[in-house]
Amino acid sequence: MLEKDITAAIMKYLKSLSGCFCWKQPGGLYSTAGLPDVICCYHGMFVAFEVKTNVGRLSKLQEVTIKKIREADGRAFKVTSVSEAKEALKSLEVLDENSVGVSGQKSGSYKGG
After folding, report:
1. Which range of residues forms the domain containing residue 23?
2. Are 95 and 67 a contacting pair, CB within 8 Å?
3. Which of 26, 42, 74, 99 ranks highest by number of CB atoms within 10 Å?
4. Residue 98 has what pLDDT?
5. Which of the four pLDDT bands, split at 50, 70 and 90, describes residue 110?
6. How crowded is residue 72: how many other Cβ atoms within 10 Å of its Cβ?
7. Whether pLDDT at 105 is above 70
């Protein structure tokens, strides 16, 4: 399956979820290099997906961008299928229910993925 087909399937899935606002980040002359392919707000959490085929690899710039997102307490994942995107969101739901931040608010911080 091509990366664009995987991305389209992930977008279709995300758009079917309540509490999820998502968009595909276009590439090109006026976009920021290294941004993940799909960005969303999922129940108040910033979540980004870098979509690759099974043999695709992250570029150094993509690795740095994912690291920066995580350091900013966002969630970022490399995914190769809709099922991997589902698993990533499922892990965030469990974490969000059980995590309490410094202020006593639920934080849902996730550094993996």
Report:
1. 3-98
2. no
3. 42
4. 53
5. very low
6. 9
7. no
Q: Report d(CA 99, CA 48) in Å as an integer.
A: 20
108 in a domain, yes or no? Answer: no
**What CATH number has the domain bearing residue 53?**
3.40.1350.10
Structural domains of the chain, count: 1
Q: Can you tell me the distance from the alpha carbon of 34 to that of 40, in angstroms, rounded to the nearest whole number?
A: 16
Does 104 fall in a domain?
no
- pLDDT digit string (tens) for 61-97? 999 999 999 999 999 999 999 999 999 999 987 555 5
> Between vectors from CA 106 to CA 81 and to CA 85, what angle results, nearest 5°?
0
- Is residue 113 assigned to a domain? no
What residue spans of the chain are helical by DSSP H? 3-15, 60-71, 82-98
